[in-house]
Structure formats: structure tokens, C-alpha cells
């Protein structure tokens, strides 16, 4: 049977694999959860911050783009204004229709200018119309871009209009040379009617002066802002809402068609309705950017508002751009990220599980195989079957086991030798014991036969003495009678001695062990001795004596002898008082029987227990000297000891111990 089967199992212990696996996986899960919770805690704020920064960057780019656009428009205007045909035209007109420098007619210069205007429109698709208008308001030349195909056409003479009432003319004519007028951004109109499809336009115009600084007319470009607005929108992220308002806060671009250019239709639709905070930008011209997050007009938004001045002549010309992003949309990315994080976590968990299993197998594997070897081979395990040459703890463990095994098998050999030796000794003891028993039996038989056979001649002597007394009694003198008395007395004593010897031999012989109530036993002895007690006026005191396992008849003899001796060896004139007590020892009961008699001198303490040993003459105290020998034998039969303590003329205490065999026999 393997050694492990003898071992008590002290509760459920985990295997090494489990001990490594659980903490490792728990550690990984915990660290992942900590990382996740940190990420989650920061994610919202960071996402919103990042969105806000995106919006700021976008609107900045939009501002740059729009200003660049306007700058380009102004450049284009200056370019066409500076072209030679305009000065040629002035020269021709001032000189009665022919340019003195090269003789070109007014019409020729107009034609050349028309060509340049057309080329300009071709080159810049956002410009939809370029005109030269005289200072008196009559259009001198006008090139238009028409319809969806974008055909460029110079308007015939008879279609030219009088623009003397228009605001842009009067505004531009007021300017000094080189300065530019930029109109409000409006929907393109033709003859007062809004042109379909709708086109947001801005007019850029600049005055033209003659060499002697006389106002001659203006050059004006109508610029379609739709492409620019689209470009600005395309800068804004796909998920971002983007609107444009003018310097009065009126919408120019808005996802809802109803709301853009509402002022053109007599309605009002302003950026402050959606972003009340935009009012600040409208009120404070020097304020450029306003961004933030929070509830704006009932919606949770991240937003960036920007005021763009684009007219170098007039800083009150402004566009208000607003890009914004819904909280919900901004945070939607979190959900996408989360699902990725969860996937990643599951992956990490799986990997860590596999890693933990691998690591624990690497560690536990060799230990398990060592355990299997030890279970299989036990003490016969060979050193080479254990990994004793391994480095590290496993090698140390294997070497420790190997040493232990060698030590155990050495001890086992020693133990086997010792057991053989002991068995031999035991056998010898048993043989000796049997021999001893046989010798004891023989001795008992010898004692019996001897005492039995001794009685025979003694009885003959006794009957001969009786016959002698009957036949010759009358003839005997006094001396002969005394001698015969001595013979009779001696034979009687001899009979008593032999009977005592027989009793001694028989003591303990075949009797059984039984439960003996000592209290009852002493009671019975006292009843037997009651006549003698009355006679000498003695008393026996005893109480709570125990129940023990022993040989009843022998124990009765023991108490009887000790009580009778206490009564017998009393001091003259002192009533004998005998006290019997018992006290529990470790594995025995210790009894004491004390009296107030004549006492015993210490030098006799030992030999009074020997058979036929007496301290007094028969004329002093009768007796055969066998009582205490009986007592010693009875006590020893019960595995105990007997001894005496005494003081002359004070009293004697006999102590004896009786083994308490009750548990053994229960
Ligand atoms: P016996 O009583 O027949 O003489 P025992 O063997 O009983 O023989 O006693 C041996 C001797 O021990 C006695 O002769 C006596 O001198 C002494 N002895 C015994 N019991 C007492 C006692 N209680 N007090 C004094 N002496 C005692």
C-alpha cells in the first residue's frame, strides 16, 4: 500500500496548477479591470476635449480659407482694373474716340477689355459676372456666365443697363483709387428677381480714375460664394454640423434650406437662435473665437464659433462660422472603442489563461511525475528515476527525497534486524516462562504432596498419643502427663503449620477475577469477627471503600488477617481501634489498615512478611507466623505491593496497593 494511503487528508488542498492558475488569472483580470476603469473614467472628458480641439482647428482652417478666397477676389479685381485696355479706353474717350498712343478706337478698347473679362471668367469659375460701369451708372461692358453649362457671354450693347441707383455704385464711387468695396453677401438676383438655382454672391468693386484724378467708372466682379461655402463645409468633419452667418448673425449657410438667406424672403433666422452665446461675437468685434461644450439651446453640443473679418477696408464685414458636434455623436466613438477594448480584454484573458496553464504545467509537470514515481515504487525508488541532476528547486526537492529514501531504507534494514532480534528474545522468554510455570507447578505439587504426606505420620502420632492416653492415662505420673501434653500440643501446632502451608500453596490457584466491593467485603469480615471484637472491646472504622476487580476469597483473607492482627497485637489496657481507608492512585488503589497496638521495631519491617516469621513467643501472642506471608502473596497476585510503617507502643499501619484492573476487564 502506498504511504499516502495512510496519511490523513487535511481538508481540500489545491493542486500546484490551481495555485498558480487562479492567482495569475486573477491578477491579469484585476489589472485589466483597473486599466479599463481608468480609461473609462477619462474617456468621456478626453473625447469631448479632442472634439473641441478638432472644431477649433477646423474653424481656424475655414477662416484661413475664406480670407484667402476674398484676397484672391480682390487680387482678381485689381488685376482686371489694372489692364491696359481700361487706360486705353479712357485715353480714347478723352481724345474724341481714338487713343492717341496707338490710334485704337474706343470700341476696339472695349472689345479688348471684353476679351480680358471673358478670359478672367473662364479662368475663375467662381466669378459669375464682370462689368465696367461708367461713373454715371451706365454699364459699358458686361460679361456674364450663364446657366448650368456656364457659358460665358459678353452682353450686347442694347442689353446693358443703367445702374446709377445701385448702392454698390455710389459706395464704390466714394472710394479713392486702389480701394475696394465689398458688398453684403446676398442671393444672386437678375432684374430684382432671385436667380435659380440660388447663388450666394458677393460683389467686389473698385473705382477707376483718369490720369488727372477724375472719376471714370468702376470695375465690379460678382463672385459666387457657393463653392467657397462648400469648401468650408468640406473642411468641417463629416459628423460635424456647420453653419455660416453674416455679421448680423443671419444665416447664409444652414443644413435647413428654409433657414439660409431667410432675410432675402423677409423672414428672420439667426445663429443666436441656435447658439445664444454667438451674441457675444456679434457684440464684441474684437472677439474671434468662442468654444465650449454644454447645453446649447436644449442640445448637448461641443462647439466652436468663429468671427472672420475678411474685408481689409471694413472690419465690420464679418462672417460668423459655427461648427459643432453632438455629445452623443462625439461619444459614439467610445462605444466603438469599448467593443474593441472588450475584444482585446477577452483576447488578453485567453492568452493569460493559456500562459498560466503553460507556466503551471512547466512547474507542476516534473513534480507530478516525481510523485507518480514515488507512489509507484515507494521505498524501492531508484535515484536515477528522480530528477536529482536538475538545477533549481526541483533538483533540490528530488535530492532531498532521494536522501530521505536512502535514510528510510537504511532505517528499515535496521528495524528489520531489531525485529528479528526481538522475536528471538520473545521466543526465549516464552520458553523460559513455560519452564518457570512448569517449575512452579511442580513446586506447588511438591508443597501439596509434602504437606499432605506429612499429615499422614502426624495423624498416626496423634492417634497413638490418644490411644496411649486412653490405655495408660491412669498409670502415668504427673511428669509423663506433662510430656504427653507437650507432644499433643506440638502435633497440633504441626497440623496448623501444615494446613497453613497447604493454604499458602493453594492461594490464588484457580480462582476467577470478579468485581469486588471492598466496602461489603470488610463488612462481612467484621461480622465474622464480631465475637472477637466484643471480647476485646475493639472497633473497626471504614467507609467509601472502592469496588475493584480481584480475587474475592483471597482479598477477604487479606483484610481478615490484617484486622485480626490489629486486634491481636493490642496494648494491654488500650481498646484496639482499627481504621481502614483507600485512596485512588494513578492506576491502583492504595489501602491502609492502621491500629493503635504494640507497634513493630523498624528492623523487623522486612522479615515479618516472610512465612513462619514471628516476633513474639507463643505464650505472649498465639499464631503461626503465616498471616502476613499470605497477605504479601495476595497483594502480589493483584499486581501490588505491601509494606509497613510503625512506632513501638503507638501503633502500626499496613499499606498495600491493588491494581485497578477494572478498565482492562470491562
Ligand atoms: P502471627 O500473627 O501468626 O504471629 P503473622 O505473619 O500474622 O503471624 O505476623 C508476624 C509477626 O508480625 C507477628 O508475630 C507479630 O510479631 C508481628 N505483627 C503482625 N501484625 C502486627 C501488628 N498489627 N502489631 C504488631 N505486631 C504485628
Task: Write a concise synopsis of the structure shown.
The chain is α+β, with helices and mostly antiparallel strands and 666 residues long.
Largest sheet: 7 strands, antiparallel
Q: Quickly give the structural class.
A: alpha+beta
Do you know the CATH topology of the domain at 507-659?
Answer: Heat Shock Protein 90
Tell me the name of the CATH homologous superfamily of the domain at 507-659: Histidine kinase-like ATPase, C-terminal domain
CATH class of the domain at 507-659: Alpha Beta
Q: Can you count the beta strands? A: 21
Distance between the termini: 35 Å
Please tell me how large the radius of gyration is. Answer: 71 Å
Strand content: 15-25%
The low-pLDDT segments are 1-6
Architecture per CATH nomenclature, i.e. the level-2 architecture of the domain at 507-659: 2-Layer Sandwich
Look at the structure and give the mean pLDDT: 87
Share of helical residues = 40-55%
Ions, cofactors, ligands: which are bound? adenosine-5'-diphosphate
What's the helix count? Answer: 15
- What sort of overall outline do the alpha carbons produce when their principal axes are compared? rod-shaped
Main location: membrane
GO molecular function: phosphorelay sensor kinase activity
Transmembrane segments: 20-40, 341-360
EC number: 2.7.13.3
Amino acid at each position: 500500500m502506498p504511504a499516502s494511503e495512510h496519511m490523513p487528508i487535511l481538508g481540500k488542498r489545491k493542486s500546484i496548477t490551481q495555485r498558480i492558475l487562479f492567482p495569475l488569472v486573477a491578477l491579469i483580470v484585476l489589472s485589466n479591470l483597473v486599466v479599463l476603469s481608468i480609461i473609462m473614467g477619462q474617456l468621456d472628458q478626453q473625447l469631448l476635449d479632442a472634439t473641441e480641439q478638432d472644431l477649433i482647428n477646423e474653424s481656424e482652417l475655414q477662416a484661413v480659407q475664406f480670407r484667402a478666397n476674398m484676397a484672391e477676389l480682390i487680387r482678381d479685381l485689381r488685376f482686371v482694373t489694372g489692364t491696359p485696355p481700361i487706360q486705353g479706353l479712357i485715353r480714347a474717350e478723352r481724345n474724341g474716340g481714338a487713343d492717341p498712343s496707338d490710334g485704337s478706337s474706343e470700341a476696339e478698347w472695349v472689345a479688348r477689355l471684353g476679351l480680358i473679362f471673358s478670359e478672367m471668367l473662364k479662368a475663375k469659375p467662381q466669378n459669375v459676372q464682370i462689368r465696367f460701369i461708367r461713373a454715371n451708372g451706365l454699364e459699358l461692358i458686361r460679361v456674364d456666365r450663364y446657366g448650368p453649362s456656364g457659358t460665358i457671354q459678353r452682353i450686347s450693347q442694347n442689353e446693358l443697363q443703367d445702374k446709377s441707383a445701385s448702392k454698390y455704385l455710389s459706395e464704390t464711387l466714394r472710394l479713392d483709387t486702389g480701394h475696394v468695396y465689398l458688398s453684403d453677401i446676398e442671393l444672386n438676383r437678375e432684374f430684382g428677381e432671385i436667380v435659380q438655382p440660388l447663388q450666394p454672391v458677393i460683389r467686389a468693386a473698385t473705382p477707376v480714375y483718369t490720369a488727372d484724378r477724375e472719376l471714370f467708372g468702376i470695375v465690379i466682379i460678382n463672385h459666387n460664394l457657393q463653392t467657397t461655402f462648400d469648401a468650408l463645409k468640406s473642411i468641417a468633419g463629416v459628423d460635424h454640423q456647420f453653419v455660416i452667418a453674416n455679421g448680423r448673425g443671419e444665416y447664409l449657410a444652414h443644413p435647413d434650406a428654409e433657414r439660409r438667406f431667410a432675410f432675402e424672403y423677409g423672414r428672420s433666422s439667426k445663429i443666436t437662435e441656435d447658439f445664444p452665446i454667438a451674441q457675444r461675437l456679434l457684440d464684441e468685434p474684437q472677439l474671434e473665437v468662442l468654444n465650449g461644450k454644454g447645453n446649447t439651446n436644449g442640445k448637448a453640443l461641443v462647439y466652436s464659433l468663429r468671427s472672420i473679418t475678411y474685408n481689409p477696408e471694413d472690419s465690420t464685414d464679418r462672417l460668423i462660422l459655427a461648427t459643432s458636434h453632438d455629445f452623443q455623436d462625439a461619444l459614439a466613438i467610445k462605444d466603438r472603442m469599448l467593443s474593441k477594448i472588450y475584444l482585446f480584454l477577452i483576447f488578453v484573458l485567453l492568452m493569460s489563461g493559456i500562459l498560466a496553464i503553460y507556466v503551471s504545467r512547466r512547474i507542476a509537470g516534473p513534480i507530478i511525475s516525481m510523485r507518480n514515481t514515488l507512489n509507484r515504487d515507494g521505498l524501492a525508488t531508484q535515484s536515477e528515476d528522480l530528477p536529482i541532476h536538475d538545477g533549481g528547486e526541483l533538483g533540490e526537492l528530488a535530492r532531498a527525497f532521494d536522501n530521505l529514501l536512502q535514510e528510510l531504507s537504511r532505517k528499515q534494514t535496521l528495524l528489520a534486524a531489531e525485529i528479528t532480534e526481538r522475536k528471538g528474545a520473545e521466543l526465549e522468554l516464552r520458553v523460559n516462562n513455560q519452564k518457570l510455570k512448569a517449575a512452579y507447578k511442580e513446586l506447588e505439587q511438591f508443597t501439596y504432596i509434602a504437606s499432605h504426606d506429612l499429615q499422614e505420620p502426624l495423624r498416626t502420632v496423634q492417634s497413638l498419643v490418644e490411644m496411649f492416653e486412653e490405655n495408660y492415662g491412669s498409670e502415668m505420673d504427673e511428669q509423663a502427663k506433662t510430656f504427653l501434653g507437650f507432644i499433643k500440643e506440638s502435633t497440633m501446632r504441626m497440623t496448623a503449620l501444615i494446613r497453613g502451608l497447604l493454604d499458602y500453596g493453594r492461594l490464588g490457584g484457580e480462582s476467577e477475577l470478579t468485581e469486588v466491593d471492598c466496602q461489603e467485603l470488610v463488612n462481612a469480615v467484621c461480622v465474622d469477627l464480631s465475637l472477637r471484637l466484643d471480647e476485646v472491646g475493639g472497633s473497626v472504622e471504614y467507609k467509601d471503600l472502592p469496588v475493584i476487580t480481584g480475587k474475592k476469597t483471597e482479598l477477604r483473607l487479606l483484610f481478615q488477617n490484617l484486622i485480626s492482627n490489629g486486634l491481636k497485637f493490642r496494648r494491654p489496657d488500650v481498646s484496639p481501634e482499627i481504621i481502614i481507608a483507600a485512596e485512588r492512585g494513578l492506576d491502583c488503589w492504595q489501602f491502609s489498615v492502621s491500629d493503635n497496638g504494640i507497634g513493630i521495631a523498624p528492623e523487623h519491617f522486612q522479615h515479618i512478611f516472610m512465612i513462619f516469621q514471628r516476633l513474639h513467643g507463643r505464650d505472649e501472642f498465639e499464631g503461626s507466623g503465616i498471616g502476613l506471608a499470605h497477605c504479601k502473596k495476595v497483594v502480589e497476585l493483584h499486581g501490588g505491593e505491601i509494606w509497613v510503617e510503625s512506632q513501638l507502643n503507638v501503633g502500626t499501619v499496613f499499606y498495600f496497593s491493588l491494581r485497578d484492573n477494572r478498565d482492562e476487564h470491562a
